[in-house]
Amino acid sequence: SSEIDEKNRMYLEMVDGSASRLDGTIQEILEYSRNSRLEIEHENFDVIELVKQAFNDLRFSSQGEMELVLDIQTSTRITSDRSRVSVLLKNIIGNSVKYRRKDMQSFVKFSLKREHNQIVMQVSDNGEGIDEKHLSQIFTMFFRGTTSSVGTGLGLYICKEIANKLKGDLFVASKLGEGTSMKITIPEDTYHE
């Protein structure tokens, strides 16, 4: 009967949601483990390719249009650890997509510049923003600043760990209801084979 079908569909959706969450958690634990274990790679790559890839992979998982705005003030080719930078961007852009406001045209702005031998990448959005009282805790393992979305509370913790591993840092500025800006600074890698 259709009632059983409806119930089964509901259960399947719940299982699917749980499996996706679990898969996300496993991915994040692997990323954390890789970051603490693996040597730092020194690769020259185009950071904008990573930004576009992260944005395109994520925006289809979100309802509504979202715009990517680029503000590039320096060469987009950087030398650093490509896979670590990719995880950083994927997580931070992922949050901008996940916590965008549904009642307005959303954007993610990526800016890139170099300052004092540092690569400075900033990801800003006009999303939900983070309550001031949570700002000091957002890089803590398992901390979740909102109940509005499914998250493990590992993403930003891993980002902070990766930035530190690259001898850089990660900063946040946010206003509830207005948006969030995350700044990644990493040293320009001058390593040569």
Report on this model:
- The protein has helices spanning 2-37, 47-59, 82-98, 155-165; strands at residues 43-46, 66-72, 77-80, 106-115, 118-125, 169-175, 179-187.
- It is an alpha+beta fold.
- Helix 1 (2-37) runs parallel beside helix 4 (155-165).
- It is globular.
Name the features.
25% strand; five-stranded mixed β-sheet; 193 residues; alpha+beta; two-stranded antiparallel ribbon
The number of helical runs is 4
Shape estimate: globular
- List the secondary-structure elements in sequence, H or E: HEHEEHEEHEE
Terminus-to-terminus distance: 68 Å
- Radius of gyration (CA) equals 18 Å
Mean pLDDT: 80
The percentage of residues in β strands lies in 25-35%
Helix content: 25-40%
Give a concise summary.
The chain is an alpha+beta fold and 193 residues long. Helix content is 40%, strand content 25%. It contains four helices and seven strands.
Topology:
Layout lengths: L1 H36 L5 E4 H13 L6 E7 L4 E4 L1 H17 L7 E10 L2 E8 L29 H11 L3 E7 L3 E9 L6
Helix pairs in contact: 1-4, 2-3, 3-4
